[in-house]
Amino acid sequence: MTRKLSPEWKIRQKIVHKLTGSTLDSVTELKKALISLESQGVLQDAFEEFRSGEYASDITPEFQRDYESKSVAAQMLDGSYIGWTYFYGGGKHSEPESLPWIEDAYPVSCVVRPVTHYEFSKGRPKSKNKPKKEKVSA
């Protein structure tokens, strides 16, 4: 029986899955995979890409004086959602990627609501239900 993964390990699980296609359910297996991926030189870019999140959330983000921040979230392999603060900006010599983020990840709930989208264009409306011309047989 595997132990339930913490939010930070769920993030690592998703990154490993994205890179390898495997679904590892234990911290021990994930650590081995992370060491292997680090030796291949692909892990840092994957973490950086994932850090910006899949979705922006309405949760008030943490504040860090030198950086801008926003709350983001991603859906994990088990269907749950995890959120964290994404720090960015800060000027020429800043390194927002060096700030801890994965350690501060937290579970979030997500409600998906359908949205009606209106699309406008100039001109007369084009009818999608044009009457069909019938052939007259003689």
| SS-derived structural category | alpha+beta
Distance between the termini: 79 Å
Total number of domains: 1
Return the average pLDDT rounded to an integer. 85
User: Count the helices. How many?
Assistant: 3
Quick one: overall form?
extended
Order of helices and strands: HHHEEEE
Number of strands: 4
Helix fraction bin: 25-40%
Rg from C-alpha positions? 23 Å
Low-confidence stretches: none
Main β-sheet, spatial strand arrangement: 1-2-3-4
Task: Give the amount of beta strand, in percent.
Answer: 15-25%
Largest sheet: 4 strands, antiparallel
Keywords:
extended, 138 residues, single chain, 4 strands, 4-stranded antiparallel sheet, alpha+beta
In short:
This protein has helices at residues 7-20, 27-40, 43-51; strands at 55-56, 68-75, 81-88, 106-108. The chain is an alpha+beta fold.
